[in-house]
Amino acid sequence: MKGFSRRQFLKASGTAVALPIATSLTLNGCAFNKETLTIAYGAKLSSWDPTTGLSSLNPAIQSFYKSVFDSFIGQSPDRSLRPGILIDWGWSEDRSKIQMTVRKDAFWHDGSPVTADDVVWSLERAGNSAGGNPMHFIWSKITNFSVSGNTVTADVSEYDPTIFKWMVHLTGYILPKHAYTRLGADAWERTPIGSGPYMVDKYERNNSFSLKAFPQYWGPKPEFKTVLIKMIPDAQARVIALENGSCDLAVGLPFDEFNRVIGNPSLSGNAYPVTDLGLIFITNKDAVMKDRNVRLAMHHAINKQKLIDELMLGYGRPMESLQVPGYDSYDPSIGFGRPMDSFQVPLFDAYDPSIKTDFDPYRARNFLSKSGYSRSKPVALTIQTTQGYRPQDYEMVKMITEMWREVGIEANIQIHSETEHLRLRAKHELASASFFNWSNSTGDPFMSTGLAMLSNSPDSAFKSAELDRLIVPLLKESDERKRIRGYQKIDRYIADEGMIIPLLQFFQTVAHTQDLHFTPHSGGEVLPQEIRSQ
Q: Does 26 have pLDDT greater than 80?
């Protein structure tokens, strides 16, 4: 790799391997405190219940939750499943039941043991539609629990191949029955109790919180006795906090600042691909977004590589589907015209295997002209975006609208928060187009294509009865190879119809003092319990 810069090597390698960039010395003369670790995050935490409300679906705060609570099943940095509160799990031979074995050495932060009854209560609560869990339609499939010692058996109303994957994903956390029912939801927010490696010590809503190591934690003991989490939405402020020594590690630095700060001999850094996708949701309530020509023109007008090169400084990969490299059904040919083989249904009578979704402004203008639009008679729409939630999010949307203008699309930009985006998406009230982040640390296609596109999902913006008919049979497909292949064909159909606009796979930046050793997680989580001193 002689002659390559750090960024060129990362870009050319095309792998999901993190690139460590390490140097030495002490930051601004500040000695590193071996007892306390201070981390600056961009995300804000508004609730300490990881299983209810829109906050439970926010991938940016799962690191907070996983520091305090245990998932039913654990996950390694490479996405593989590992024991969590459950040390064993599986299906009956006829796929009508599941069995779970609860570990005997786990304790709640109040010192009481974690029990099989806690697992049952947590799953029943998650499946109750009145309980506020946005994924209750998944959890409600698990019924008729029975407990024998530390073994839990339950019926499954219909086979779902993703059930155990949900136990490591969003809302898949175990809570203490005795403590939650005694405290109630309001008091719980002041004194949350988990079984994870850290206990909540102090919490200032949307600002900061401190954690203390839990001495009875069943897993590897965290090295740092105290962790201070600073919630700093402004990325430049996180850079300043790192450089002035008020934090030891900062997550999500702008790429230009990341390149600069790692030149400091007292800092190290990692910039690595994560299972996060930047995309534009399309809401097809209005006539303009029901027009396939307009949707495809929007896609063809976007030069994704230019976005990555100029805004992300090369830290990213252009994407054409809802699957990123490493996902179970990732197909790099989607969007580039490969025929759909034998996937023949009446819906595809107009399928054109030559259709691509790569950058082609000529094709974009041609699609618009078919619907009577041009630069002199542009189509008008609104696109929403966050500003600072992801690196260069607003700047990316601004550049996209300029690309659209060149072909005949005039877009008005509206800025809102990530919370507002989630709220509007759940109510099917997003604008015609909306830029946001999609995260799927499991890599399962249902958690990407299924959730993002199935009409009854709280996460879908494009509602299509035809697409539902294609996805629904895969929800209980027991042949894994057939299920994966089915989602690949559906992803191709989505691309050919322009139902959503995938843009790029995100890279995450993490910079820290030279005294720390940080191991990247492909899901983007930055967990204080996994950070060590050099």
A: no
